[in-house]
Amino acid sequence: MGGVGESPKSLVALLMIAVGFVLNTIGFAAPYWVTVSLGSRFGLWMYCDFLDNCHQWDSDGITFAKFDQVRAFEGLGFVGTLVVLFFTVLYICVPKVAGNKILGILDVLVCFASAGAILIGVVIFGTEHSDLGWAFGLSTAGGVLFGLAGVLLILTLCRK
C-alpha cells in the first residue's frame, strides 16, 4: 500500500465507501421504495403487484410529477459512487498515485456530489410518499455513508 493507506482514517473511509456503494446499489435497483396495500410495491424502475408480477415501468402514466427528477438524481448519485470507489482505491492502494493531492481533492468533490445527489433524490421521493420501504432506507443510508466518508477523506488530505 501507499503511505496514505496506512492511515486509519483513509481505511475507514474506504470501508464506508464500499458499504455505502453496496447499500446504494441494492436500494437503487430494488422495487421496494414504497410498499402499498395488499403487498404491491414499487421502486425507481419496477412495479410489482400483490401476486409478485413485476413490470418495468416508465414514468409517463405516473401521477408523481417529480419521479423523473428522483431517477435523475439517483442515477447521477449511482454513477458518482462508482467513480468515488475507483478514485478511493487509486488514492489509497496504488503506489504510483497514492496520496496524490489532486486525486484526493477530486475524490472528495465527487464523494460529496454523489452523497448530495442521492440525498436530494431520497428527499424528493420521501416528501411525496408515506409508505416508504427498505430499499428507500438503503439508498438513504448509502448517501449518508458517502457524506461521512467525504469528511474522513478531507481529514486524510489535511493530515499531509
Describe the overall structure.
- This protein has 160 residues and is α+β, with helices and mostly antiparallel strands.
- It has one domain: Butyryl-CoA Dehydrogenase, subunit A, domain 3.
- The protein has four helices and four strands; from the N terminus they run H-E-E-E-E-H-H-H.
- The chain has a four-stranded antiparallel beta sheet, covered by helices on one side.
- Helix 1 runs antiparallel to helix 2 and helix 3 runs antiparallel to helix 4.
- The longest helix has 28 residues.
Please compute the radius of gyration using only Cα atoms: 18 Å
The helix/strand series, from N terminus to C terminus, equals HEEEEHHH
Give the domain tally. Answer: 1
The share of residues in extended strands comes to 5-15%
Tell me how many strands there are. 4
Order of neighbouring strands in the sheet with most strands: 1-2-3-4
How far from one another are the termini? 16 Å
* Structure classification: alpha+beta
* Topology-level CATH name: Butyryl-CoA Dehydrogenase, subunit A, domain 3
Shape, please?
Answer: elongated
Topology record:
Blueprint: H1 8-29, E1 34-35, E2 41-42, E3 46-48, E4 54-56, H2 67-93, H3 101-128, H4 134-159
Antiparallel strand pairs: 1-2, 2-3, 3-4
Helix pairs in contact: 1-2, 1-4, 2-3, 3-4
